[in-house]
Amino acid sequence: MARHIELAKYSIGVGxxxxxxxxxxxxxxxxxxxxxxxxxxxxxxxxxxxxxxGSEPASAxxxxxxxxxxxxxxxxxxxxxxxxxxxxxxxxxxxxxxYTIDVADWIGKPAEKVSIAEFAARHPxxxxxxxxxxxxxxxxxxxxxVAGTAGKYxxxxxxxxxxxxxxxxxxxxxxxxxEVSMDETDSPQTPVELLIILAAIADEHIPIxxxxxxxxxxxxxxxxxxGDLAKFTEEFSNDIAAIAFAVRQYGLPANLxxxxxxxxxxxxxxxxxxxxxxxxxAGVHLKTxxxxxxxxxxxxxxxxxxxxxxxxxxxxxAYAHRDELCVPYASVIDIDPKKLPAPDEVRRWSGDQFAxxxxxxxxxxxxxxxxxxxxxxxFKVAAKMGRRYTDLVDQMEDRIAPHVTGNLYDxxxxxxxxxx
Length: 420
Hints:
Elements (H helix, E strand, L loop, with lengths): L9 E5 L7 H13 L5 E7 H7 L3 H15 L6 E7 L13 E5 L10 H10 L5 E3 L8 E3 L1 H29 L5 E5 L9 H13 L6 E3 L16 H22 L6 E4 L6 H14 L3 E5 L2 H11 L3 H16 L1 H5 L16 H4 L4 H8 L10 H9 L1 H7 L1 H9 L1 H22 L2
Helix pairs in contact: 1-3, 1-17, 4-5, 5-6, 6-7, 7-8, 8-17, 9-10, 9-13, 9-17
């Protein structure tokens, strides 16, 4: 019988828009390994990204396999079918061994009254005072609260079960990692709501290894966290405690851990997250994505006239089509149009000026978060360039790769997983 696939304690989702930075990303994990900390890479790409770029999941698998072979990586690695649903999952079956099941659209869809009543009756332990080790005060609930929360989330959990079983029928039991994502919704889930959701997931017999709730605050693409840091810190710690409690209470997989989506560049959170992980001995999955594409642009801009001119062209096109590019990401970006420089101004920039505006260094006076977010969602512009873009990226790999590796290791892996 095939060995069950288990996700390691620490893992990082390394999105790669054009599947050209796999070796540079893997080097960042190898640097952590040299420091004695295992951080497993999970290459993630959504169906939407594949459609925009015109790629297939097999290309992401090929890039990852090639990087692992070239760098002689001996530890596990995974391919994530990111934010899939029942309508999109099949194209990922052959290439992926990690599935982020996205059921945010089902949150709030009314569950059957009998299902709600049966859930509440099955879980009397969720009503009243719930004492969870590691949480300062008991979580207090009422029957009405439990029933109301179940009514909000049961349909989503049942849909997750349907998708899980569809994948299991094709891949086999234990032959893939399951994540349930509920982060792309309007309201954050509280730790007690997370506990109720986990009870429902256990009832649905989904062996999830990671869960992605929506946290309080703004998790915008490619920029730092915006929100109440103290509140997030308490919430994150209590979520970890709730997961540990649910594992014991409901028989969920022992390695179940939080997954933080839009985790790219959340610099202010990594210290509090690291301390919470150490306190509980817990793991985490950090999902990054578009920052690697931005490091490609930085490397191009600083690599000579040809690369700089292409980077400026990407910006000019993104600026001209900013409304079209931003609409799909409206809930996870905050761009101030007044702070976007005109393309004519950008055309006069040096490579260092372009890089300084784009690189996420809040201490740098030239850093422009609006420009960064626009280019983050502007990868569609480069995708339309096709080989003209990717061929130049290949030609300038030696200039680009250090930016990709350094960004992933120095700004993400080190502060979160190593605490330094």
